[in-house]
Design brief:
Elements: E1 17-21, E2 28-33, E3 36-42, H1 52-62, E4 72-76, H2 82-90, E5 95-100, H3 103-112, E6 120-125, H4 128-133, E7 140-145, H5 160-169, E8 170-182, H6 187-197, E9 202-207, H7 209-212, E10 218-225, H8 231-239, E11 246-248, H9 250-257
Parallel strand pairs: 4-5, 4-7, 5-6, 7-8
Antiparallel strand pairs: 1-2, 2-3, 8-10, 9-10, 9-11
Helix pairs in contact: 1-2
Length: 282
């Protein structure tokens, strides 16, 4: 692909998708959907995770099993398949399924940003919740949810009922990781913590201190499991990142989620609209 002649916009289900060359990193591309950055891909080095919250999702995937061992991973939300590429390289032989509602977006990504040759990735065109419901019980080691309609997470992916179905699809001791976008006063994130605790024994949040203190809008990663939650290892990795993050778990999460009410389908709403320009590419 010629970086001087990037592909033009492509209309799709979720909005107009466009690939922009990363001027600071040769061989890298940013996927925009409806003017919101959705993914960053480095074709030369799929282990490079540019977005900070995606880097944290990468830490979760690294710690979800024996180092380098293949996993069965279900990705809800495809984008440019950044994490699927990452798993294909860091855990060769992994079987990965992706649920992406927009087939035209998947076609654009597969055409312009080819997957590593060894990647075992199957993409299903479907709504994330419908795609999850179609998966067999105990069929995944990890489920990753990173779904946006525009810049908001759809309401039906934020509920007790949805979390219970994620738990059904996971194998015993499996891991669920979900991107949660919120800002002051973090009402949505607190509700999500309470909701996820109805389905999983252990829940933690990974986020930059400024976001956790309610100073600005941003991404929090929730990590959930009925098995062992590697809090110490996650803490070390998140602290060493270019933009260090905290891990909130146990009693700290008790305080964070205090008073929050779990969300059911009947009362669910989309995640908050981000402030104008918060996800601008510059």
């Amino acid at each position: 692909m010629d970086a001087e002649h990037p592909p033009g916009p492509a209309p799709g289900v979720r909005g107009t998708a466009e690939l922009l060359a990363d001027a600071d990193r040769p061989g890298s591309w940013v996927l925009l959907v409806g003017d919101t950055p959705q993914s960053h891909v480095d074709l030369d080095d799929p282990t490079h995770l540019e977005f900070e919250y995606v880097r944290r999702l990468g830490h979760v995937l690294d710690l979800a099993g024996e180092e380098g061992a293949p996993l069965d991973v279900l990705h809800l939300g495809g984008g440019a398949l950044t994490l699927a590429r990452y798993v294909a390289v860091t855990r060769p032989g992994s079987r990965q399924r992706v649920v992406e509602i927009d087939p035209s977006l998947t076609e654009l990504v597969r055409d312009r940003l080819p997957l590593p040759r060894s990647a075992r990735v199957r993409v299903r065109a479907d709504d994330a919740r419908a795609g999850l419901a179609a998966r067999p019980d105990a069929s995944a080691d990890v489920v990753v949810c990173d779904v946006f309609a525009g810049a908001r997470t759809p309401a039906h992916l934020t509920t007790i009922e949805f979390a219970a179905d994620v738990r059904r699809v996971l194998r015993p001791g499996g891991t669920y990781a979900v991107n949660v976008a919120d800002g002051p006063p973090l009402r949505f994130a607190r509700g999500q913590a309470a909701t996820l605790r109805t389905a999983f024994r252990h829940v933690a949040l990974l986020a930059e201190p400024g976001i956790l203190r309610g100073r600005r809008f941003g991404n929090l990663v929730a990590v959930c499991t009925d098995g062992e939650l590697p809090v110490a290892a996650l803490t070390r990795r998140c602290a060493a990142d270019p933009m260090p993050a905290r891990v909130v778990a146990g009693a700290d999460l008790d305080r964070f989620a205090a008073g929050a009410v779990p969300v059911r389908d009947a009362g669910a709403v989309d995640s908050p609209e981000p402030p104008a320009g918060v996800f601008a590419t510059g």
